Amino acid sequence: MRLLFILNEAAPLYKLGGLGDVGSGLSQALLAAGVDIRLCLPYHPQIKVSDRHLVATGEAIFAAEPLTYQVYLTYLPGSAVPIYLIAEARYLAVTSDALDKDVAKAAVFCLCLADFLSRFSAWKPQLLHLHDWHTALLPLLLKHRYDLNLPSLLTIHNHRYFGQAPLSLLHDLNLNPDLCQVLTWDGQDQTLNLLLEGVIHADAVTTVSPTYRQELLQEPGVLFDALRTKVGRFYAVLNGLDYHTWDPQTDPHIDRRYTTATAPVAKSANKQALCRRLGLAVISSTPLIVFIGRLDPQQKGLSLLLQGFQTNRFPPPKAQFILLGTGDPQLERALHQAADRLPTVHLATRYDEALAHQLYAAADIIIIPSSYEPCGLIQLIAQRYGTLPVAHAVGGLIDTIKPPTTGFLYTPNTLDQLLSALDQALSYLHSPSETQFYTALMSLELSWKAATPIYIDLYTATISGDMKG
Ligand code: GLC
Question: Is the CB of 374 under 6 A from ligand 1?
């Protein structure tokens, strides 16, 4: 099966969040399962590859102007997965952020790729697997501008980022509005929702956990109406973890590597080394609580932490807390203002992959107060590293945490509830034997092994037009 896997990021080439991990982890698992897979990304200016070759140069018209694009072929570093990088000097060479503002860049990426697929590609994919709003214009473009009938499956990783574009984008893309269904459904507010275009025009849609799928089907709004109409072609496949990147037995970033048996001693040594490096008091019996993630005020529930710092209720007495993450500058400032004075808190407001590994390997508890969470990868990484998640009971967090042995869940998402779940988790740390505690977490099967055959079945059904309706 020839599969083109199209997305905006893939670690380690370019990563903004969980999507980047899925890009590399799932594509490698599919390759290992025998799928003839190739990735495709915009050639973002941050991407550095030395070994690449030019496979095509083409031209596509955008906003009535010809744009020249180049397609390079290389490999995802550290893997045998071939990857196309689409370069274009005006739109694709700009740095974009993790949010959904840069709609012209996404549109030009889809346009150049559609043009490449229709004219040059010697390797002809049988299916496109699209991820998130950046890629969601492809089915519409292929059908209506290029007259190319290529089956497509779209995965929604985060519905809150959907790419809102002015209706004039249709003209810029040379799409006749009368030909597409877009306007009747989507154009009523005089804007286009790019993710919705993908949902309407893709042959099948998936998302990244069963509970999140249910949540989406219950939301009011046009995007969700569109999902409800294709409920038989809308599936959930729970994300997995890339076991090569996330393995406490081989992790090159951590001080002491460990197995389930050696976890108690090694994690405590890792905690001491980390606290020393970050200037926190070194007391091995003090539990270490961490937060790791994008500082996204909409999703990640950081207002609870702010409130906790400001009222001196968080971190709980006799616990230390380290936050790692970057994102909204205003939120970063507010967190520093509220917590820099607290002796048991360290805020690392930056992107630091090595520190993330060290935190998983040192922490006792990770908190995940997300207001919504499509799947969440950090609870999976935490479990594999023997760190107990305490999370808001929502989306994929519900599907991956079974209290008390593999974490704690709380609802509603208030500081009181978070603190009370943390209390329970802190007492639980000392209740089962160390062997029971670490075995329950670290022996979970969290790799891409479960998801891979499900995706392959969905690909097969999409290619053969066998979707239910
Ligand atoms: C997004 C979601 C996260 C999910 C990830 C990968 O980052 O917010 O919940 O795990 O995508 O699917």
Answer: yes
Q: Is 18 in the pocket of ligand 1 (CB under 6 A)?
A: yes
The predicted pLDDT at position 448 comes to 97
13 lines ligand 1 (CB under 6 A): no
The structural domains of the chain, with segments of one domain joined by +, span 2-242+449-464, 263-442
Instruction: Work out the average pLDDT over 138-142.
Output: 95
Out of 8, 15, 162, 208, mutate this one to test ligand 1's pocket (max ligand atoms within 8 Å of CB): namely: 208
Q: Are 27 and 81 spatial neighbours (Cβ–Cβ below 8 Å)?
A: yes
Residue for token pair 């050696």: 262
Q: Which CATH number fits domain 2-242+449-464: 3.30.2280.10, 3.40.50.970, 3.30.950.10, 3.40.50.2000?
A: 3.40.50.2000
Tell me which residue of 122, 131, 86, 129 sits closest to 105, measured CA to CA.
86
- Supply the pLDDT for residue 58: 97
Taken in order 68, 73, 78, 79, the sign of the CA dihedral is positive
C-beta of residue 52 within 8 angstroms of C-beta of residue 85: yes
Per-residue pLDDT, 191: 85
Look at the pTM and tell me if it is higher than 0.90. yes
* Same CATH fold assignment for domains 2-242+449-464 and 263-442: yes
Whose CA is closest to atom 3 on ligand 1?
376
* Distance of CA 164 from the midpoint of ligand 1 (Å): 20
Residue 204 Cα, ligand 1 centroid: separation in angstroms?
19
The residue contributing the CA closest to ligand 1 atom 12 is 157
**CATH classification of 263-442, choosing from 3.40.50.2000, 3.40.50.2300, 3.20.20.70, 3.30.413.10?**
3.40.50.2000
CA distance 342 to 350: 19
Minimum-distance ligand 1 atom for the alpha carbon of 17 = 7
